[in-house]
Amino acid sequence: MHYAPTSYSENFIMKKTQFGLNIFQKLLLVLLLVSLIPLICLWYINAKQARSDMDAHIAQTMIATANTIETGIVAWDNTNIRALRQIARIDDMTSMQAEKQNPILKGLTETYEYSFLSLTIGLNGDNIGRSDDKPVNYYGDRGYVQAILKGAQISREVLLSKTTGKPSYVLAEPIRKNHGELAGVIAMVMNLTDISKTVVDTKLGETGYAILLDPSNKVIAHGRAEKVKTALQDFNNHPALALDSASDRPTPYKDGENNILTFKRKLPQGWTLIVEQDYNEAYASIKKLEADARNLILITVALVFAVAFFIGKQLTRPINELTAIAAELSSGKFNLEIPQTKRSDEIGALALAIERMGISIQMAMDRLRKKSAE
């Protein structure tokens, strides 16, 4: 049985169709691995540490903001409590007689300018003394009065004033006779301006703000006025209130298309303080760091491709030339000029080996022709 010989060119084509990586692809892969693996590892470690540091910084900033607001509100509230307690012990106040109480109540209101009304209430809920000389009213339906009558040592309530119809803060203390018997209630009614100003003036970056809610989660003050549509608006559905973790650390929640970081704290008055900031602004520096890292990786990949292409061409061009020459030699063409023989590297050695192989093949062919001619 006779098999037709397979030519070199056919073998070459068959090998080329087999799956495998050429020199350029192998070089590219090696360069990518060598350059990208350390770069990506370094970026991952640094990014992880940077995010951890950023988390700590944001938490520190939001907690410090909450501390500042709380300190101001508590100090302001304690000042008012001390004033009420001192006045409640005066004999003219314990007399529960309007003509004796009114001058003292007027002096209290004049001393604390943010207070627009000081008053006393009897055990039946009727108004006795007033600082504004207006007609007396019934206050037995007010929560702060009921709390004192039930034994509370201090009572607070944010409400719509019967006098002005505006949101007001009421601080109340019991009036007791010398033997400790409850005689009535003294209350100071204040505008929320001072409290609101502390909250409204609080800024955290471009988007950060604070919110102050009363014990029933009605808004006392809000750093973004457009979010408040009515006086003492109900904020029970605010997402921060449902996030238990927001009491320990800043926690994100979704507000439409925006992510918001929120931190909340209960104040001694029973109020809830919420500090919030746009997530993207809070993490802007880390996002820029990540974007710069991605750009650096893309630039590195582009440079690796360029270097691999340039070096690959430098390697594959002479090899392809020598491969073509070897194919010509195998077909019996010996009058060929073999380049690259002057090179001192491996390609030069390969060129010299092909040149010697060509000479050997030509000499062998010449001997065969001579023998066949004899």
SSE layout and pairing:
Layout: H1 8-17, H2 23-88, H3 91-94, H4 98-111, E1 115-121, E2 127-130, H5 143-149, E3 155-160, E4 167-176, E5 182-191, H6 193-200, E6 209-213, E7 219-222, E8 251-255, E9 258-266, E10 272-278, H7 279-282, H8 284-330, H9 346-373
Antiparallel strand pairs: 1-2, 1-5, 3-4, 4-5, 6-7, 6-10, 8-9, 9-10
Fold and architecture overview:
- Helix content is 50%, strand content 18%.
- It contains 9 helices and 10 strands.
- The protein has helices spanning 8-17, 23-88, 91-94, 98-111, 143-149, 193-200, 279-282, 284-330, 346-373; strands at residues 115-121, 127-130, 155-160, 167-176, 182-191, 209-213, 219-222, 251-255, 258-266, 272-278.
- The chain has a 5-stranded antiparallel sheet with strand order 2-1-5-4-3, with helices on both faces.
- A hairpin with a 6-residue loop joins strand 3 and strand 4 (167-176).
- The radius of gyration is 44 Å and the shape is rod-shaped.
- Residues 1-10 have low confidence and may be disordered.
Protein traits:
Beta-Lactamase, 5-stranded antiparallel sheet, 50% helix, alpha+beta, 3 domains, 9 helices, 374 residues, Helicase, Ruva Protein, domain 3, 18% strand, disordered N terminus
The assigned CATH architecture of the largest domain is Orthogonal Bundle
Q: CATH-wise, what's the superfamily of the largest domain?
A: HAMP domain in histidine kinase
Tell me the span between the first and last alpha carbons: 31 Å
Strand order of the largest sheet: 2-1-5-4-3
Helix content: 40-55%
| Low-pLDDT residue spans | 1-10
User: How many domains, as an integer?
Assistant: 3
